[in-house]
Design goal:
four-stranded mixed β-sheet; three-stranded mixed β-sheet; 2 domains; 9 strands; globular; Neutral endopeptidase, domain 2; single chain; about 55% helix
Length: about 650
């Protein structure tokens, strides 16, 4: 399939790039684009995700039709998982029955020891608990894995939802949702007094839990969150939390000697809520979260009620996604790499891998050139930065070593049993890492995922096969298009190694301060200026709400460095000598390609949610605000002080 390098039909030529690059490139599309009822958002990323979803659907459907597959094989497990979800008739017949033994378990909680065991049991079986866990590289010694423990316990997206005025309507809807879900599980069509009373208990308890949470900006501070503790230390700091009981019920007490306590004050403060007089509150909380977690896999009444709040109320999505789409999501969550292994066979051309290798080499060379020429950084810190740059590891397309799913046990026709089995399998896989060395071949995304990432504790950049498609990467397009697209994405991910989080780790992934005091101060001064720029921005859809510059600073640094370095890399590749195409110079085409990648539209509800919790800025600002800081943009489109995109030279931020 041939895809145009730039789709001019999506442009709005009445909008000048010198005023609004984003709408110049995407305005025509924005004027006519409609969000499908089963989507909360549309745009370049979403188009590719839909395409990837269809490819995985074809794989699942093909395997599911083969009833002769061995259930112990990967293909057989994929088929059985998918069939168990799409068999809506059986799910409706079973109804709420899968909840019964689990709710009975909650009813059997008689004291705080039982409650703590429930927290641990939920961790092991993939249900909501009072804490979250993750197995990850030790920031102090990146050659080993450690267990990280973090705050949890909320049913709303973030602690700010429990206190900030703009979320009042969501708070009211959530309390109605709590009662509705409890009523459904009890076999009542409409909430009654007992359901409303329990909902009030849950709301008041979660509000108290939220008050102990770190805010979302503070949770970006890697240094503040690196708190190495023994189990004895945890118990001493928060004796009423019940660490031995919780970890024992999770099956890991004897396997863990040290953990990283990401929010020590949370565990100390929330322990004060674990008291005998609040036991009934906790049991109500446990009921709701169990019901909520399993709702997507139960009968239509549960699915619809869950979607009404978490879909429509929180994101504005009008209709539930088709069952086959949800089945693909479930199967992919359970066996994503096994599906990815099949996906790449027909969706990852060798030429894409070769071209990506060249692009990455040029981006790294451009970063080397840029860092070497920095005027605000000392030679001492530059040497460390360049050492880190040279240590970057790139992963492209798909894993070299695929994950082993032989220990996953799948039950034909039993959806909830498969949900729990998959959760347990993932838990055992993660906890099993604690006994061995770091797996350098592990991927944290599937090949069919349309995204990319940088891992600060492993100093690696990862680009799954599915993102290597237009508008990000076009094997038939000129270099300007690809450097403005995937080149800027590569630069963005490399840039994360030098953002507010990544810059705290060295080339080995070790949490270490490799900066002089003067250089760190200069860096933070530049980041403060960028934070201030974004704090002043409000999306066109929700002008009453502002971007959180501190929350989005890491991604904004990534965008700024990514595009700026992509331009340098394009020039290193000889791009400056490119002839105009379709009336646009090479440099113009690079910026137009950048803007095309950020075509995006969503419901107002989702805009509001993302402003509260998403570390990424809205798409219009990822495009427009970044270019306002890049001198080459002014050169490309002859931007002057009379143009809306103009930013005084003294106010422009260049970090890397």
């Amino acid at each position: 399939m041939t895809v145009p390098a730039l789709d001019l039909s999506r442009f709005d030529l009445s909008q000048r790039p010198a005023d609004d690059l984003y709408r110049h490139v995407n305005g025509g599309w924005l004027a006519t684009a409609t969000i499908p009822d089963d989507h909360a958002q549309i745009g370049s990323f979403i188009d590719l995700r839909d395409r990837s979803e269809k490819a995985i659907h074809e794989i699942c459907e093909g395997l599911a039709k083969d009833r002769g597959l061995d259930l112990t094989s990967e293909a057989g497990k994929i088929a059985a998982l998918y069939r168990s979800f799409v068999d809506e008739e059986r799910v409706e017949t079973v109804g709420a029955a899968p909840l019964t033994p689990l709710l009975e378990r909650i009813e059997g909680i008689e004291d705080l020891d039982d409650l703590r065991e429930w927290f641990g049991w939920c961790m092991r079986h993939g249900f909501s608990s009072l804490l979250e866990t993750e197995v990850e590289s030790d920031p102090g010694d990146p050659t080993r894995y450690l267990l990280f423990v973090t705050q949890d316990g909320l049913g709303l997206p973030d602690e700010s939802y429990y206190r900030e005025p703009q979320h009042e309507a969501i708070r009211e809807q959530y309390q109605l949702h709590l009662a509705r879900m409890l009523a459904l599980a009890a076999g009542r069509g409409e909430p009654q007094q007992t359901d409303t009373a329990q909902a009030r208990q849950i709301w008041e308890l979660e509000t108290a839990i939220a008050a102990t949470h770190w805010d979302i900006v503070k949770t970006r501070d890697l240094v503040a969150m690196y708190n190495l503790r023994t189990i004895a230390d945890l118990a001493a700091e928060a004796p009423d939390f019940g660490w031995p009981d919780i970890l024992g019920a999770a099956g890991i007490c004897c396997k863990v000697k040290e953990v990283v306590n990401c929010q020590p004050s949370f565990f100390t403060e929330v322990a004060a809520l674990i008291t005998p007089d609040r036991l009934d509150d906790w049991k109500a909380w446990a009921r709701f979260h169990l019901i909520s977690d399993l709702s997507p896999y139960l009968s239509k009444a549960f699915v619809d009620a869950n979607f009404a709040f978490y879909g429509t109320a929180l994101t504005g999505q009008k209709a539930l996604r088709a069952r086959w789409k949800r089945a693909v999501g479930f199967t992919e969550a359970a066996m994503g790499e096994a599906l990815g292994k099949i996906y790449v066979e027909g969706n990852y051309p060798a030429e894409a891998a070769r071209r990506m290798g060249v692009l990455i080499a040029n981006l790294l060379a451009a970063y080397h050139e840029s860092i070497s020429a920095l005027t605000w950084m000392s030679d001492e810190t530059k040497a460390e930065a360049l050492k880190k740059l040279e240590s970057f590891r790139a992963k492209i397309g798909h894993p070299v070593v695929w994950r082993d799913y032989s220990n996953l046990r799948v039950v034909e026709g039993d959806l909830v049993a498969n949900v729990i089995a998959s959760n347990e399998f993932d838990w055992d896989y993660e906890i099993g890492k604690l006994a061995g060395p770091i797996n350098r071949d592990e991927w944290l995304m599937y090949p069919q995922t349309v995204n990319a990432y940088y891992h600060p504790l492993r100093n690696e950049i990862v680009f799954p096969a599915a993102i290597l498609q237009p508008p990000f990467f076009n094997v038939d397009a000129d270099d300007a298009i690809n450097y403005g697209g995937i080149g800027a994405v590569i630069g963005h991910e490399i840039g994360h190694g030098f953002d507010d989080q990544g810059s705290t780790c060295d080339g080995e992934g070790r949490l270490r301060d490799w900066w002089t005091e003067e250089d760190r101060a200069a860096f933070e001064e530049a980041t403060k200026a960028l934070i201030a720029q974004y704090d002043a921005l409000s999306p066109a859809q929700t002008p009453e709400l502002h971007v959180n510059g501190a929350l989005t600073i890491g991604e904004n640094i990534g965008d700024l460095g990514g595009l700026g370095i992509a331009i340098k890399a394009w020039r290193l590749a000889g791009g400056a000598d490119a002839e105009p195409i379709d009336g646009y110079t090479g440099l113009q085409r690079l910026f137009l390609s950048w803007a095309a990648c950020w075509s995006y539209h969503s419901h107002d509800e989702l805009v509001a949610q993302r402003l509260a919790v998403d570390p990424h800025s809205p798409a219009e600002f990822r495009c427009n605000q970044i270019v306002r800081n890049i001198d080459e943009f002014y050169e490309a489109f002859a931007v002057t002080e009379t143009d809306a995109a103009w930013l005084p030279v003294a106010d422009r931020v260049t970090i890397w």
